[in-house]
Design goal:
The protein is of the alpha+beta class. The protein has 2 domains: 6-207, Cupin (Jelly Rolls, Sandwich); 295-373, Malonyl-Coenzyme A Acyl Carrier Protein, domain 2 (3-Layer(aba) Sandwich), CATH 3.40.366. Helix content is 25%, strand content 24%. It contains 9 helices and 19 strands. The strands form 5 sheets. An 8-stranded antiparallel sheet has the order 3-11-8-13-7-6-4-5, covered by helices on one side. It has a 3-stranded antiparallel sheet with strand order 10-9-12, with no helix packed on it. Strands 18-14-19 form a 3-stranded antiparallel sheet. A hairpin with a 2-residue loop joins β4 and β5 (64-69). α4 packs across α6 (266-278). It is globular, with a radius of gyration of 25 Å. It starts with a strand and ends with a strand. The model has no long low-confidence stretch (mean pLDDT 96). The structure holds succinic acid (SIN) and cobalt (II) ion.
Length: 374
Amino acid sequence: MKNKLTMLGGLTVDVFLRDYWQKKPLLIRQAFPQFKGLLDPQQLIVLACEEDVQARLVTQTRGKFDLLHSPFEPSDFDNFGKSKWTVLVQGVNHHLPEAAELLKHFSFIPHARLDDLMVSYAPKGGGVGPHFDPYDVFLLQGTGHRHWQISTQADRTLIEGAPLRILKNFRIEQEWILEPGDMLYLPPQCAHNGIAEDNCMTYSIGFRTPAYQELAEQFLVYLQDRITVNGLYADPELKTQSHPSEISTAMLDQVADAIKKVRWDKQDIANFLGCYLSEPKPHIFFESPGDGLNPTKFKQQLQKNGVVLSLTSQMLCHDGWIFINGEALQPNPSDYPLLRGLADERVLTDIKNISPALIATLYQWYLDGYISLD
Ligand code: SIN
Ligand code: CO
């Protein structure tokens, strides 16, 4: 990608990926020049109190941090006395269409790498303390100002017994005050501390870096429903053994041969990854249409206006396969480009040459709340 982007401080995507992504921090003044945020502190607190939202409340009293997790009541935000505090709300893109639109600016990173948009609010002095995250993040400043301090230090020792992961020996290497529209990119493990200068809202576009251990364990879970190993243990040549309690080498060899028959290929890994990475987080749910249209009306509306992915839907694709909210589907090859377009853009308007099978699939997704009519 050769275009120089304002949001990358005049770098092209290729240069950003080559020189900064996963490598080193980048401060971008006025990455989003008119950006003033998408919601105000009160609206964020209302969102933090909704039952299907994951939020955290961090308070700091005389330098000691405390952490509370949602669900919250509005009264939880009434009186902080002399404490500094901040509220952090995950997955705002699942609730606010403007937040989902904001994420589209970051589509130069594959959707499979994206986690979510977290929004925080803190009055003066609030923050979560010096820490590092295991993932890449773009920290976009909304309203107010935040003092960011960062360090590429190797010392990752944490304060023992603290309810949050706070670095014991944070050594500031660089610091800046970010204004609305400024953005700081941090690669994984880069230590950082953000302190609100005034009433401050920060938008964190976070990515995911799944641990290989988790991927391997989940792949085995995926595989257990799909493997077939035929046959039963048999020992027509059984010989006597001096210790009946001993598992014989013959038995071990036979079972080892049977287990070697468990096979998987790249397609299994692709299907597993598509399902795993598009799986909704546990608190996410899908709303079926209240006044669901019948199939004929749905088809008319579909052909007139197209469909959009619901804010909570996650859709990925690979080589003829489509993955939506943890489910895999192999559509007709002629429908694949349409569905890939829906996964790329979260909207499908050009509905020419659509097969009856795909209309039926889209109708089911509509009833499940995965998509809605545009
Ligand atoms: C914040 O928005 O206060 C914290 C974001 C972070 O440091 O990861
Ligand atoms: Co962080």
